[in-house]
C-alpha cells in the first residue's frame, strides 16, 4: 500500500478517510476541531502530522481533573526576587499562531475548559485576567481537542454548548489493509507479521464489551511488531505487549492467548 508521507520531516500518518481535507478546511476557515475515538487509534499522530504538514508549532496538553486554567493560560513565577509572567501552552499557541491540542479534554474540569469558549467561537480571543491582556488569535491559530467516548460517563460528557463550537471528526481503528501498512511503516516488520498481528487484533476486537474494557489498539500492535522485529518470540511478544495490556484477569488473559497461539 502507498505510504501517505514520503517527506521524512513529517511524521508518518496513514489516512483512513477524508480527515486530512476536513482538518485543512477547518484550519483555513479558523474553526476549532474535536476528534473522538478510542485510545491508540492515531489521533495524536494525526495532529502531529497535520502540524508538520502545515508548518505550525504544536502545543499538546494531556488533560486531567487537576488541570487548572493557569496550567493552560500561564502564571506568575517568582525567581531572583522578581515576579515573572510565564505563558502556558494555550497562550503560547495563540501568540505564535500555532495549534493547541488538548488530549482527553473531558477529563478537565468545566471551570478549566471555560477559558476555551471565547477562543472556540468566532471571537477567537483569549483574555488573560492576571496580566490584563486580551489576545486576539492570529489566523493560523487552531484549537483541537480530543476525547475517547468509551471512557465517558454521564457526568463527564461534554456539554452540548461546548461541543457545538467544534467541527467534529470520528476516528476508529483502520481497515486491516491500512493497519498492516501502519505496522510495517512504524516497526519495519514483514508483511506476514503485520497480517497476522492485524488478524489477532480483529479477533480480539470482536471480544470487546464482553470481557474487555478497551479494544486492542493499533498502538499495542506496533509494540508487538517492534518486539518481534528484534527477534522476540511472537507468542511472548504478543502476551507482553497486547494481552497483558488489555486485562488483569488471568482467565481472560488465557482466552486471549488462545487467539494468539492459533495465529503464531
Ligand atoms: P491516540 O492519540 O488515538 O491515543 P496515537 O496517535 O498516539 O493514538 O497512536 C498510537 C500509535 O499508533 C502511534 O504512535 C503510531 O505508531 C500508531 N498509529 C495509529 N494510527 C496511525 C495512523 N493512522 N498512521 C500512522 N501511525 C498510526
UniProtKB/TrEMBL annotation:
InterPro entries: ATPase_dyneun-rel_AAA, CbbQ/NirQ/NorQ/GpvN, CbbQ_C, P-loop_NTPase
Alphabetically ordered keywords of this record: ATP-binding, Nucleotide-binding
Domain named CbbQ/NirQ/NorQ C-terminal: residues: 179-262
Record-annotated ATPase dynein-related AAA domain positions: 32-166
A GO molecular function held by the record: ATP hydrolysis activity
Family classification: Belongs to the CbbQ/NirQ/NorQ/GpvN family.
This protein's name: AAA domain-containing protein
Organism of this sequence: Azoarcus taiwanensis
